[in-house]
Amino acid sequence: MAPRIRTLASRDARMASFLEPEAVSRLRNMELRARFVVEGFLQGLHRSPYHGFSVEFAEYRQYIPGDAPRYVDWKVYAKTDRYYVKVFEEETNLKGVILLDKSASMGFAGKGISKLRWGSLLAAALAFLMIKQQDAAGLVLFDDAIRELIPARSVRGQLYQVLRTLEHVQPSDRTKVSEALHAVAERLRRRGLCILISDLFDDPEAVLRGLKHFRHRQHEVIVFHVLDDLERSFDYRDEARFVDLETQQEIRTQPWFIKREYQQRVEAWSRELSQRCREQFIDYVPMTTSTPFDRALLAYLNKRSLLG
Amino acid sequence: MFGLTFLNALFLFGLAAGIVPIVIHLLQRRRLKRVEFSDLRFLAPLNQQRMRSLNLRRLLLLLLRVLIILLTAFAMARPSVRGSFSKLLPAQARSTVLLLVDTSYSMRTESEAGTALDAAKNAAGHLLDALEPGDAVQVMTFDSAPRSAFDTAVHDVELARRHLAELQPSHRTTVWPEALRAALTALSIAHEPNTELYVFSDFAGTLGDSLPSDLPALQGDARVGLVPVAVETFVNVSVDAVRVPAGAVLLEEPARIGVTVRNHATDVPADCALQVELGGEPKAEASLRLGAAAQQTQEFTLVATRADQLAGTVRKRADRLPEDDVRHFVLPVLAQLRVLLVAGEGNAGGSFFVARALAPMRTGKSSVALVEVAAARFSSNDLEDVQVAVIASDAHLTDGQAQILAEFVHDGGGAVLWSGQSDTADERNRGLLGLLGEVRLRGVVRQQQGYVNFADLRPSGLLAGFDAAELRVLETVRFTRYAELTPAGARTLLKFTGGQAALAVGDHGAGKYAVFAFDAGTDGSDLALSSMFLPLVHRTVVELAGETGRQRLDYEVGERIEVQVPIAAPAGQAGIETEERWASAGIPDAVERKVTDQAYVVTTPNGRQVAVEARYIGRRAVLAYAATDEPGHYRFNGGGREFVRAVNVNVRESDLRRMDLGEFESRLGLDGVEVVDDAAEIGRHVREARHGKELYKLIVVLVLLLLTLELFMARAAREAAPS
């Protein structure tokens, strides 16, 4: 008997809101935020053309003694008085490591949440999703060096540790992405999936060398290149004194006067990174802090599906 | 040297407002928002590159705004520049303005718009309109002398305007140096810091030859403007002079006058019709054709029908300058000549012939009343009412008698001396010649063989009017004896064939004398037997009897007329004979003393009667009258007699050609003289000359252009900025 899934328009809207970074950011704690993002994302998947990417469960079957009670769908029981269990896709033992850049530049917040906040929310959602899929998830926080490392594990307690760490992450006052990537690549011995969340404000060549180091060690890599909307658009109105968060360097400018050229330069930089990543078979996903998380989660799932 | 002045200097304080845009600019810089940004790696190089041009534009905009404010304040201060004046005058400086107005008779020149003086008044009115509150004004007119309207410059412009309106041209000519000196002197003591002199004239004629050298020093910082009034050119013909006979004019005898007219036009001929009146009666007319810039003398023959000092007038048809179209003259007509013949003993000097020549008719009317007296009995009483004394060559005169005769001539009488009769006689008469002064007698020449004749006789001067036949007769007269005369200042009227003087005429004081180098006797020549003897003697006597030589009959406007009147002999005195007696009579030369008991009245040409007193000037009793402001005849009446004098304009003023104003400036040595050609623009010229060329209009245009540029630049910046 196929389960009845009720779908309501209001419920869709609420689910969609769980993917908005601003909305998610206001939830009480990181676990709640991660759950809401993932469940909202998965709910959306069922109604999306991306159904083929579903990885949670494929079907219902009747309960047979010996099945784990946790797989009984009690809602279906409430409706049908019959016991049905969810059938999941075959489990894999993927080792995923989330690399979150906590350098000073990640602390920049334009009109919404900071990049670090956004990155931590994404990291939380990814960890939640991984562990929910019984993959191993780990976390590395870095700036110019590794500041926190949680090895990848698939047990339930791992998620809480990761979420707790992400709950309290603060930006540092240093930035040197490329050096940190080399250090992380050296530490990750087992082949796995490396998910980098960073604004990549460093020498592009050095960053790419760092990423190549991961590839050299046979890791799969997804790069979530996150920037604030203002960092992409430079949509400031008034003449102001702009101060570098890290170096405190100050310049005075009329933003509208240089906006177009700034955008062009940022675009060119992003394109170069994309092309260079592509050459190394690295997935490059440009994001902004106003982008809903489903896009990032879809990119992860796509990569995940290719890894089997 | 460049000079900058401001009409509203107070607004220069507005220049301080130029700092406002700078202050705003600096304040805006400090109020800039501080924005933390993640990374400046893209911003910094881009900003450095693009902001350079932006900063330049912003700086230009700032400078533009500062400049707009500065120029606005500058324009409101009404700056002006002057070319050759270097002093920086405060805007509140006041001026004393002196209007020097030419009122000479050339300013009577008429045109459709009025006279030249009317045009000058109009231009002066424009100048008065340009005066500013607090300015002082003085009006000075000038012709032959300057005259100030007010004791000192007045602040009441309307008073000056009324005075100008009442100005009338005079009959006098311009004398520039004195007028300019008076004007500049008046300005040099003005109270206001700025002084200005404006000369309104037709600038006709010339400056004259003698110019003062102190005018540049008197000018000081005074600005001088010349305002030539426009005069329509026309052909001006003037009656320049009337020549009356030097000798006596006898009643009913023809008298020739010469009238000189001049065409002042340099490029066109002119026709001129003359009319002569004498004693109120028209006497003659003539028409002349004058070439360009030509002067011509027309002779008229007049016959007087009345014995008196006759007033005569020559007129031509009036043109645009009527002042010089009339000339007045006086023709003294005598009923008879009173001639005294001082004869020697017997007839050795030809006295008989002389007497017959002078009074050919013993009975009946004769133009000559002859009185004969022997030399031994001759005294000063014999000279009363005598016009001419004839001294025969054989009349032996004492030193005292010679003195009497010399004084008689000095006081205006005429004397004829016959010489060459005998050495003794001539030697004695040398004393008289010595007193008279201009002729020396060296001796008597006797022709042993042959004779001499008159030579080079021409119908002019003494012989004017004699025809060729008469002159030929005179040339046949033979002289075998004559005196050797040496004219030492005298004029030789007749010569002998050897070149020696036959007749010399000299001046002594107010009178004239003639010396014949021969006597009238037949033993030295056959002149007495010639038919020309009588006319020659008559003509000589008449020539010496002219009152024109004795008293001046013709004056210029403004000149003082002096009329010598007969002296009433002091009581107890038979007559004044010698210098010593003059002194003893208590009548010194240098003192003016009223002649008692005789009243005179002068009637001016406009009919006004003024009482005048006779006063002694030297040894002469003189009626004097100085208020000769009008041309015409001035008649002095008193003591049963009338004396007429003619007053005319100085025709130098009739040359209406404008003098070269550049030469005017250079000859006077004045500095920075400016010419205002268009009298209607004099107000603007006064403002510009006083304050220079005002720049505020130019600056306002510049400010508007800069404002437009600023708006354009600011708008371009705003369009680039987000809304």
Model description:
The complex is a heterodimer of chains A (308) and B (723). Chain A is an alpha/beta fold and 308 residues long. Chain A has helices spanning 9-17, 21-25, 30-46, 74-80, 115-132, 156-167, 177-187, 204-216, 229-233, 255-279, 293-306; strands at residues 57-62, 84-88, 95-101, 136-142, 146-153, 193-198, 220-227, 240-244, 250-253, 283-288. In chain A, strands 5-4-3-6-7-10 form a six-stranded mixed sheet, with helices on both faces. Chain A has a two-stranded antiparallel sheet with strand order 1-2. A two-stranded antiparallel sheet of chain A has the order 8-9. In chain A, helix 5 packs antiparallel against helix 6 (156-167) and helix 7 runs parallel beside helix 8. Residues 1-18 and 48-55 of chain A have low confidence and may be disordered. Chain B is of the alpha/beta class and 723 residues long. The interface between A and B is medium-sized, with 39 and 22 residues.
Number of helices of chain A: 11
- Return Rg of chain B in Å: 41 Å
Mean pLDDT metric of chain A: 79
Largest sheet of chain A: 6 strands, mixed
Shape designation of chain A: globular
Morphology call of chain B? elongated
**Which residues of chain A sit in consecutive blocks of at least 5 with pLDDT less than 50?**
1-18, 48-55
**Major pleated sheet of chain B:** 8 strands, mixed
Helix vs. strand class of chain B: alpha/beta
